[in-house]
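hey can u check if this looks right to u? its 469 residues, i copy pasted from the old doc so theres a chance i mangled smth
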Amino acid sequence: MSGIVSYGSYIPYFRLDRKVIAATLGTGGGRGTRAVASYDEDTTSMATEASRNALTARTGLVVDALSFSTTDPAYLDKTNATAIHAALGLASSAMAADLGGSVRSSVAALLAGVSSTGTTLATFADTRCGLPGSGDEANGGDAAAAIVFGAEGTVAELVGRGHSTSEFLDRWRIPGESASKIWEERFGESEYVPLAGPAVTDALKAAGITVDQIDYLVVGGVHPRAQGVIAKSVGVNAGALADDLSSAIGAPGAAQGALQLVDALDRAGAGEYIVTVSVADGVDVLVWCTTSALAGFRRQRTSRTLAQQIADGNATLAYPQFLTWKGYLKREPARRPDPDRPSGPASSRSEDWKFGFVSSRCLQCGARHLPPARVCVKCRTIDEMTPERLADVHATIVTFTIDYLAFSMSPPVVAVVVNLDGGGRFMCEMTDVDPASVAIGQKVEFTFRRLNTAQSVHNYFWKARPVRA
């Protein structure tokens, strides 16, 4: 069996203050905030960002397989994990597959990672919403997590598991629908709560521990009311009941369980027990035990923690803008031609550049070329190049334009020209930024985003965003 050797998370920059829902509609809302994927983000781009954080958190990882769990895939009848695979620059021999369709698929992804051989990257992402004024709208959330499984240097290991399954119609959505339908809450509670006891008992028995030995209990899923009852019924010490993160980011569906596990790993010490309970079409209980390697992993990693990402959020998102991004408010677009559909053959030929953000550097004079070239622009040497991946390279803004007329779901468009650390100049869009704060000399980093969608084809590429501490 494999254990967790690294992990990462991604929380979008924007937040919706739940109070603005009731202020606009007169109903709904609540307290706290929910995370909101930007107009240029989807589950594929968010899963890529979480995976980047997990892979940079520990050097030397060579991924043999990748799985992607979501209930809101960018494509159907096409594997979305392959775009993540390409954006991460993984070897072509690494398997990439989707595990989706339901929140419970995330549990299957975790168990597949534990039982795998080699190094497996399990990534999870979801965008969750409902009709305006609904509980799903206020309580949902958009986020991603990634967990790397391997045999050496494990920071946590699965030591027990328990499952309870039953068929009942509590929440459902057919293909083509944007919002789920939910049965009366008492029905879901009456079905879920009886399933929890046997699953918890089996998991603790398999782990050889008692309730009093649980250091962190995290409960998540698709039914908040049942989750609250189940959390209390386990009977852990008050200090062991961990925050489910819903007040800060909402409930991000297939990503929730992995995010809660990441949050617990960020807080736990060596030899502590983390119990995750997933309430979705049944109850799944996993018992994890941390190792002495966890503290060293946290000291050495350079990627931002989940808590830091939550703290960095911008909660000034206007409710009409939120509705526009979610597709519930159709607004007048810019009076410009619609974007062209990306070419499949052209995208395939430039995969390393378009998805992996790979440049070339001349072996003779050291000039860096963006996009990669065969002929050096400085010394004219032909085919004397070495590839260089730029996704983790920082850059400095040398000039910028704020364009109020260009086609965008969130005008104005901020276009920047940047000098990359180590050489090379590049022009691209800037995202997750207040246009008024953009300045020459500002440091930026790169993020994988969806530029647009034309004729049902998603156009992915890289944008710049401000470097955050």
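Residues 3-325 form a domain with the Peroxisomal Thiolase; Chain A, domain 1 fold (CATH 3.40.47.10).
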